[in-house]
Amino acid sequence: MAKQKNPSRVEPQKLxxxxxxxxxxxxxxxxxxxxxxxxxxxxxxxxxxxxxxxxVPKAEAKIASTHQAxxxxxxxxxxxxxxxxxxxxxxxxCEMEGDIRIHGNSSSIFFVASSNVNATKLQESxxxxxxxxxxxxxxMARVTEVSVKTLxxxxxxxxxxxxxxxxxxxxxxxxxxxxxHDFTDILITIFTTSQQFNGEVQFLISEILPxxxxxxxxxxxSLTNYEIIDFNQDQVVRCYPHVIVGLxxxxxxxxxxxxxxxxxxxxxxxxxxxxxxxxxxxMTIKLGPDQGKKPRILIIAxxxxxxxxxxxxxxxxxxxxxxxxxxxxxxLNLIEFAHIVNSCDVMLGVHGAGLTNLxxxxxxxxxxxxxxxxxxxxxSWIDFGLATISMKMxxxxxxxxxxxxxxxxxxxxxxxxxxDQKEAYKKHGWDRMIDLYFAKQGVKLDMGRFSSTLLHALxxxxxx
Length: 464
Fold this sequence. Notes:
It is found in: Golgi apparatus membrane. The protein is of the alpha/beta class and about 475 residues long. The chain has helices at about 5-40, 40-50, 135-140, 180-195, 210-215, 215-225, 265-275, 310-320, 335-340, 375-390, 415-420, 420-430, 430-440, 445-460, and strands at about 85, 95-105, 110-115, 125-130, 145-150, 160, 165-170, 200-205, 230, 235-245, 295-300, 325-330, 345-350, 365-370, 395-400. It is built from 14 helices and 15 strands. The strands form 2 sheets. Strands 1, 2, 3, 4, 5, 6, 7, 8, 9 and 10 form a 10-stranded mixed sheet that branches. Strands 12-11-13-14-15 form a 5-stranded parallel sheet, with helices on both faces.
């Protein structure tokens, strides 16, 4: 008589087989997904990984990665108030309500605890650098570290100045002075942080320079009704009922509505900028059969780095297509240049800080970013493409061909500098390649190839 199998042994064996098979199948699926992701974004990943280690070139102080390892701050929270968050990879942030006393010259912020707080919670301190380039050692080396401490009323310094409005403490160190970083690191982040107070807030700014304050006074005065305090030089103890230390960073040149008070967007920021600078146009020209006025195209002229080598030809071609061409350098007086930008319907420029002027364009404008050699397609989209779309404008990205780079005048056709950027970084070194691609490369547009881009821009202006 055949021996019967014990069901109690067979079932676990089947179950183990099923589980093992399922795990193997899941692993293969994950591997395929991961491989697809890496292949899809290989150029961007390569650029990011190398960009993080690069020194800041003199011509373009913006070589800093958002994906570098975070600075190793403590992941702690202050008891009740104040509250500090060290978990974000781009910024540390504290917000406190109650009796807060600030002594800028010693970089100290004191949260004065009530007498019934557990004594062990007193005398605690947390340190942070209030600038949204956390993880970028080069940028943060230019930022003063601030200490947030809890003290008893008995030990707290006496108030010299009392304020009934909140305060925001932040630094304009880092890469300030570079137009792109001025906006992405500070002006957009201070907009999202301070708008909730409708001007009833005071700024205490470390590393502030008089020229920087003067350059952006139109924006700063629209955000605060009060004197801006030089944090590093302030000798008195100022007392506030509500203090924010640091600025929350969302993404490059953009705002995440889910992370901002009242769901603010880049459309709101554009509206705010136009109002601050008293810009006339909220919308571009609307082309139609009865439209006699020509659309204006602004060509951002750079004198030295990543300049257009055939500006006259670009102007002539654009005018033949029906544009009114305006050539201007972005280093003019900011207020004057903002009005020039706002008067235009299309903006054309090579990848660089000058494209930050897109914030002055009217809604529905067209931004054409020309991407030079160097594997810059991904970072070009992140820096300016996303911002353009977020502001309800049209974005076009034109990647030059080999023949359109002036580097062909310096290198033979087979050199990796021209044919294989990844190999060029390995062969010549990161420092030299950044100098070549950013500082020593010009662009000579092939108008036979580029004309279709201009025609497409005209079509976009005809759309609703």
